Amino acid sequence: MISMIWAMDEDHLIGKDDKIPWHIKEDLLYYKSKTAGQDVLMGDVTYFSLKGYYKNRPLPYKTIYLATLDKNLKIEDENVVIIYDIDEFLKNVDFDLFVVGGRTIYRLAYKYADRLFISLIKGHHEGNVYFPITDFSDFGLISENETELVKYQIFERVK
Ligand SMILES: NC(=O)c1ccc[n+]([C@@H]2O[C@H](COP(=O)([O-])OP(=O)(O)OC[C@H]3O[C@@H](n4cnc5c(N)ncnc54)[C@H](OP(=O)(O)O)[C@@H]3O)[C@@H](O)[C@H]2O)c1
Q: For 12-31, how does the pLDDT look when each residue is reduced to its tens digit (9 = 90+)?
């Protein structure tokens, strides 16, 4: 099963340069509850941004499949597997995988996703990176929970 998980606000904003535009602890905890210890796919911009947050602490995933087109990129971490061809990789995934961003990787992975975990952050924020897809009609809502700050939705592919 391939799942995508992201947080976006009412304008579909997901980033401010290479960072998340808000700091909402309950959403971070939700994100962690879904992805900690899981196999994840991310782009190199997101990877280096997360490394900035975690500094010397290890990132909380099982294996990180790191997408890049840079053949010179070397990461000295046995939990990181570099992926040059996302289509080839996603076509052959036979285990549970979370796609965790960023914008480019969401766009490339969307057609392979079975489930979407969306945190709809209430309000409008400052930033410059938007979620690349606006039409979610291939998916049906299977769960929704709302707090004062966030609406947590899970969608499953219907076509
Ligand atoms: N709100 C959220 O939930 C959330 C989650 C994650 C990220 N984000 C935001 O998303 C933004 C980052 O998105 P981004 O698009 O700049 O970066 P990204 O998706 O993290 O990484 C993009 C990189 O992927 C590589 N790539 C591109 N096409 C590829 C392909 N066909 N196969 C393999 N690798 C490929 C390229 O690496 P090379 O340039 O090295 O070739 C490209 O620079 C930030 O603002 C971040 O905060 C938000």
A: 999 999 999 999 999 999 99
How many domains does the chain divide into?
1
Gap from CA of 141 to ligand 1 centroid (Å)? 26
β pairing state of 13-15 and 139-146: unpaired
Q: Which residue has the tokens 């939990």?
A: 79
Global pTM value: 0.97
CATH number of the domain at 10, please: 3.40.430.10
Distance 41 CA to ligand 1 centre (A): 10
CB neighbour list of residue 59: distance below 8 Å, 6 or more residues apart: 50, 51, 79
List, chain by chain if needed, residues with CB within 6 Å of any ligand 1 atom. Answer: 6-7, 14-15, 18-20, 42-46, 49, 67-70, 83-86, 100-105, 108, 129
For residue 128, what are the domain limits?
Answer: 2-157
